[in-house]
Amino acid sequence: MTSGFRSVSFSCPADLGNIIVARTLIARLIRYISDMHSLRKIAAFASLSIAISLPLQAGEMIVSREGDAVAIYFRMPFTEVAPLFGHRVPGLTNANGEIVFDTLAKGTFEDADVLAQKVAFNIGGQNVHFDALSMMAHQAIVPQAFETPIDAQIAIAVCGVPLPEGKPDPDKMTWIGGWYAYPVDAGQDISISFPETGRQDEVMSLRVYDRGRLKDTKTVTIVDGGSIDLPYQLTWRQRLFGG
User: Fold this and answer.
1) Which residue among 21, 25, 34, 132 is least crowded, i.e. fewest CB within 10 A of its CB?
2) Nearest to 124 by CA among 33, 64, 52, 188
3) Are 93 and 173 in contact (CB under 8 A)?
4) Do 1 and 137 meet the contact criterion of CB atoms below 8 Å apart?
5) Interval 143-169: pLDDT, tens
């Protein structure tokens, strides 16, 4: 089973934003691999992978600021996607809300664009259009790694877990999706507003990366019709040396 990987898809080579996202992700991956120069780090990475394979319990978000681009990724229980975004998951569900996988081969970024139509993205006080990267559904008992922007990009690009036997149960599936904006000033406040749908509060763990480095980790609660506000804060290095 495959999924559209918008940021490196050869079907849209003229999209400069996709090229930039691919470039930055590859650069971060190379730097990460080069940093794993000891068996101790490799062992730590293996332990982390085992921990990540545990069943998913709550929603998660990753925000990646890359100078002139911002990428936002979500991972959450499949049944909570429609209430949060105000739209059934197009391309992955039929009119009855049942999960279908036979459409994934065509790519899912266009469906993810439809899913986010009722979500408002704002950077630096201005409404900004975010293009979908892709989205994917996995069995919750074997989730993909979701610690870094690279993890998230791989999880929405490739289905690395087996298909469920028989009819997929939405209660046992995890949904992952991602969007990006380019060119933008990533060093600005970010706000993401969600539609009012009558749902319960959505609690998510949030990790914010700035040019590949983890900058903030916290838990956020998204009330029905509410938003997530991410003010940009300079590090002491940035305050002293700029950048």
Assistant:
1) 34
2) 188
3) no
4) no
5) 789 999 999 999 988 766 677 777 888
CB 176 within 8 A of CB 147: no
The Cα–Cα gap between 65 and 88 comes to: 28
Alpha-carbon dihedral sign for residues 157, 59, 146, 62: positive
pLDDT digits (tens, 9 = 90+) for 72-131: 999 999 999 999 999 988 888 887 777 877 666 566 778 999 999 999 999 999 999 999
Burial degree of 88 (CB within 10 A; 0-12, 13-18, 19+): middle
What sign has the CA pseudo-torsion 14, 12, 82, 1? negative
User: Does the predicted TM-score (pTM) go above 0.85?
Assistant: no
Q: Indicate the helix (H) or strand (E) that contains 28.
A: helix 16-35
Helices (H), 127-226: 149-157
Distance CA 25, CA 7 (A): 10
In single-letter form, the type of residue at position 81 comes to V
Both structure tokens of 189: 């406040």
Q: Which residue has the tokens 């996607």?
A: 81
Spatial contact of 27 and 159, defined as CB atoms under 8 Å apart: no
